[in-house]
Amino acid sequence: MLRFVLSAALAVLSLSPASAAWHKASSRHFVVYADDEAAYLRSYAEKLERVDQAIRSARGMADPDIGLGNRLTIFVVPSALDVAKLMRGNNSSVAGFYRTGATNMIAVVPRRTDRQSQLTPDAVFFHEYAHHLMFQEIDTPVPAWLVEGFAEFMSTAETHEDGSVGLGAAPLHRARDLYRRENPFPFSQMLAGARPRTAQERSAIYSRGWLLTHYLTFAEKRRGQLSKYLSLLATSMGGTQAAQSAFGDLRTLERDTEEYLDADKFPYLTIAADRLKLGSIAVDPLPVGAAAMMPLQIRLRAGADENRPALVAEIAALAARYPNDPLVQTTLGYAYIDGGDPVAAGTAADAALAADATSVEAMVLKGRSLLAQAKASGKPADFGAARNWFNKANRIDPEDPEPLIWFYRSFLDQKVPPTANAIAALTYASDLAPQDMALRLIAARLYLGQGKIAEAKRRLIPVAYNPHGGRLADEAQELLQRITAVGDRH
Fold first, then answer.
1. Beta-ladder partners of 75
2. Would you say residue 330 lies in a domain?
């Protein structure tokens, strides 16, 4: 996650009651909400789609169809100060954040950042979105410096008036780290896979990671070396040996990149507009009730409010004024679910379904309310009733991972072995939402239980090599080591 220092004295939440300007933009990969004019939102959604297509084109990535419920939801708030207030712990240094959970996949980005900051709102989002795309595809080890270097490379994407997209501009927000007299995290350590220990070393993963990624991408004499390095890592070769085999002397590599930096002439890749297939973009004003609820929904989904009962009460008071608005009622229902009142959540789900009988979100909410009640009753029929709603939701949007996840979890909640169909649902959900690291880990364990070692490894590797993976990364690395040890014994 990208960070920069804000003035704590200015961190006053400005998510005021909604104006009439709240709009929703729906495109192939995104759902964007902003309290702004329709023209701005359309332009913003188009820019996001162009950058998405440019990254896919540059990397040769597939672009499979995704369900309506599997698009990334983006909330645009007025400023970086508002982002900080929405971050758990009210972290005043956060300029934007992205949550990868398949059941609440959101990004919160600012309309503007501090005027004196070189870190733009676009750079914040494109960095995080590059991670989102990278983790959809990788099935071989990718070291931390390349994970962050690739994201920084894509963070400076620029859309041009002719519709083309430029990739590779220098990240001005990393200039201070790039032009340090000495690299605090030498390539001999970085390429070996050593973990950074100090703040300067962690910053170097981003700045020097960008520099090395950029250099290896454009330098003719280094063509093919990055692919060779990654291929060697995939054979379980150690980082140092793989780097030396691919790049030669690492001190020479570091010296070459320093000369590349000092030349201050960075090549730039332009993806022509006719290579970018955007699809349709619909922009609609939100109804009055939905517009009024939107600031509260953002707070609910961001999860920052320490006094959750007060937030639920605020949502309930507003929802009482708009009983026929499906977005209002689903927001209320999820607030009740989070607050531990499944019966009230079911009532809100019924109201939402009465207003929109095809709402997948409301169907999942209804299923979750029944599932929570079934856990209390313990009756098999009650669990079956909950599963029926998850099945209904899945029939409407088969590519939405959330109904599949809850269908699987219903068996765990019932304390009975998941059926083969439930296991298949969960593993498919992990394919639909590969950026959800916890989901990948669960799927990997299920594949291991079935003796499908290759499938398990494919899901474990991105988790194990996620530089922000924490406990999940440690678990994935341990599982990979055990798989390798068993393989070696055979």
1. 33, 108
2. yes
Strands 72-79 and 30-35: parallel
Q: Which of 432, 343, 120, 64 is nearest to 443 (CA)?
A: 432
What is the per-residue pLDDT across 193-252, written as a single tens digit (0 to 9) for each? 888 889 999 999 999 999 999 999 999 999 999 999 999 988 878 899 999 999 999 999
CATH number at residue 119: 3.40.30
Please state whether beta strands 72-79 and 106-112 pair in parallel, antiparallel, or not at all (unpaired): parallel
Judged on CB neighbours under 10 Å (0-12, 13-18, 19+), 154 is: buried
Could you tell me which of 92, 169, 157, 163 has the C-alpha nearest to residue 130?
157
Mean pLDDT of 364-376: 98
Half-sphere exposure of 480 (CA within 13 A, CB side): 22
First to last CA, the chain: 41
Q: What is the 3-state secondary structure (H, E, C) of 222-271?
A: HCCHHHHHHHHHHCCCCHHHHHHHHHCCHHHHHHHHHHHHHHCCCCCEEE
Q: CB–CB of 315/309 below 8 Å?
A: no
Q: CA torsion sign, 372 to 374 to 380 to 382? A: negative
Separation CA 160–CA 168 (nearest Å): 14
- Chain center to CA of 12: 26
Residues 291 and 312 occupy one common structural domain: no
Kindly report the pTM of this predicted structure.
Answer: 0.87
Indicate the average pLDDT of the chain: 89
Domain that holds residue 230: 170-267
